TrEMBL record:
Organism of origin: Vibrio maritimus
Entry protein name: Transcriptional regulator TetR family
Keywords: Transcription, Transcription regulation
Residue spans crossing the bilayer: none
Tetracyclin repressor-like C-terminal domain span: 3-71
InterPro entries assigned: Tet_transcr_reg_TetR-rel_C_sf (IPR036271), TetR_C (IPR011075)
A Pfam family annotated for this UniProt entry: TetR_C_13
Length: 78
């Protein structure tokens, strides 16, 4: 992978996880999400979904995405 492509993907991932963290912060503030470190949780959620997306493509079914959804809901529930 070229350095410019790696950097573009890295910057995109940073922006995505920052957006997820802001959403988690909003949920914590309104009481719909358990209080936790939003940056760490955002990274875990993003990495989990990246892996689930890849495994879903490899297996050609949605089971991994369903697992990721259940895990995300468990992680964020109040």
């Amino acid at each position: 992978m070229s350095e410019p492509m790696r950097d573009a993907l890295h910057q995109g991932a940073i922006q995505i996880t920052a957006t997820i963290a802001r959403c988690i912060d909003a949920g914590i503030e309104d009481g719909s999400i358990t209080e936790q470190d939003s940056t760490t949780t955002a990274n875990v959620v993003y990495q989990q979904w990246l892996g689930a997306s890849l495994l879903s493509k490899l297996s050609q079914n949605t089971q991994q995405l369903e697992f990721a959804l259940a895990a995300t809901q468990s992680l964020l529930k109040r």
